[in-house]
Amino acid sequence: MKRxxxxxxxxxxxxxxxxxxxxxxxxxxxxxxxxxxAVLKEKKCLQTEKPAFTLDPITVITxxxxxxxxxxxxxxxxxxLRMKWCSYTAEGTGHTQVIAAVKEPSTWGFRFRxxxxxxxxxxxxxxxxxxxRQGIDxxxxxxxxxxxxxxxxxxxxxxxxxxxxxxxxxxxxxxYAGYALAWASWNHNLNSALWFAF
Length: 198
Description:
Layout: H1 2-20, H2 30-48, E1 52-55, E2 60-62, E3 68-70, E4 79-85, E5 88-94, E6 108-120, H3 123-127, E7 136-147, E8 150-157, E9 160-170, E10 173-182, E11 188-197
Antiparallel strand pairs: 1-4, 2-3, 4-5, 6-7, 6-11, 7-8, 8-9, 9-10, 10-11
């Protein structure tokens, strides 16, 4: 009797487990069931959701000297593509290549560049018995031809008109010297001036 009782105690968990699974059914251990549910949820996600992609932005910068800088070319910080789809993630990196054509400014040729100038006509006070103030002239100048930093200008001021040569000191400032014909006296003059570009 004791022997039967000991065998019954040993077989009790198996008998209880057998009773949990109804006749004609297939029993699945809880761990396997959890794995099957996870697979089904993943499959449902893949069928209903779309993959999400994120891309690194590419920034292109051109400075005043015509140099071009862009992101994604540094091996330590490459251009990166990331994909996430349900529980799957993927990442890819690549090299960014930017091809840019920069038009070089011409070093000579015709152009239309208006300027304002403040000049002095030294021949007016020296040779025509007038005050020093009579030599001051101001007006507009047109730079119509240039070779690098030198240019040819036509000038029209409130005291004279003329033609001469200018030199760029900076992009918007320079000096000028040329022939001038005074309006009032019709005298020939040298016009030396400072100009300011618009």
